[in-house]
Amino acid sequence: MRKLCANALLIALVLAAHGVRASDDASAGYTAVRPSLVKVWAFDRAGRPIESGSGIVVASDAQHSLVLTASHVVAGAASIRVDLSRDLHDVTARVERTGPRDLTLLAIDRGGLRVARFAPRTHPVVEGNLVAVAGYVKKDELIGIVGQEPRVLFPGTIAARPENGLYLELENVHIEEGLSGGAVFDPGTGEILGIVTSRTSDQRGGFADSGTLVVVPFLQANNVAHAAPATPVPVPQQPLARVVAIAPPAVLPQPVPTLHAVLAVAPPHDPDGAIVSWQAGEAQPKRFVFVRAGCRIAVTIDVNSLQFVVAHAALVQAHHHGALLGISVQQRAAATDACADVADEEATDAAYDPTAMSFDGHHVTMRFVYAGDPANSDRFPSDASLDADLSGESVTATLQFFDRDWSGSFALPLARTALAAVSTTW
Question: For a Cys-Cys bond, which of 117, 124, 350, 367 suits 47, CB 3.0-4.6 Å?
């Protein structure tokens, strides 16, 4: 017995000396998959996140891309956003096609992205195969905070292949919330073997739609190439083909028109209500208290300015930095050594820029992100949302702020001013 153990140890040392990699390393596959992974956000009409998940880029040309995710991630969403990287986030997405089972294609107006590679039919997937899973874990998310990283889980095992392989049952990997739409991939090559759709209640694993039997046929039916070239060429020369309808589209609210161009609107024939500016009235500063790292911190927020314009039943995008929302923040903390670096008794101003705007003729919602000095980002709420019904006699906007460990809201009265035109400097 001792001789066998000694021989085994000798073999292991020889293999290590010759650079033979152990089978428990998924770094090569993850390196190939990582550039194609994205974060998918679903928001309600008030701009609040209602669900999030993962996705993979399956097609990309110079200007547009298609992202594959799980249908239940975006079901019922009023708006959808995609985070592509630390520096490229909050990209507007729209449902292009809902496919069989739990698959949805999202279209985004961003090109030049790395396309994931799917395993060919010659790549067998059988019970006992070791696989890896990659995606964004929900518990790691911070609304408006850029920089969350995907997670890679390894080793997982193909425990079973229900319905003749249409499903892949995974074990030995804890499929957490947020991984839906993520990739099940070959740990050595990075080729996609399946798309995560659900997890087991006992946390031992989850389920995925088969890449070769479900996902690839869905992509091919929609004129989407099912694999990237062997050598990375992230921007194909041909534009994306329009998707051919093979299933009813997802039932989602229709997108609300938003004006993005610089406007110089002539006086309308019907000036009453055609162009309206809404401004927040006076409101007392509001104090919020939270605990961070054992330190009790008080934050006082004063809304310096809140203004937006509706022109001909559409929101007008402002072109000045922080033109829609500006606040002052004052932080104070207990005078202890633990809180000494937090205390800041002088109020500091910051701007917030909109990332989503919607208006249906009565109800307006917006989502904002902090747009001030990055060096001060820790001192300001990272995200904000506005919700207001403009159809009443007395209009009040609810302005809510979000940060990583607290949230709070304001009720702001809105004043209405009819305009004859919108300045090109707005």
Answer: 367
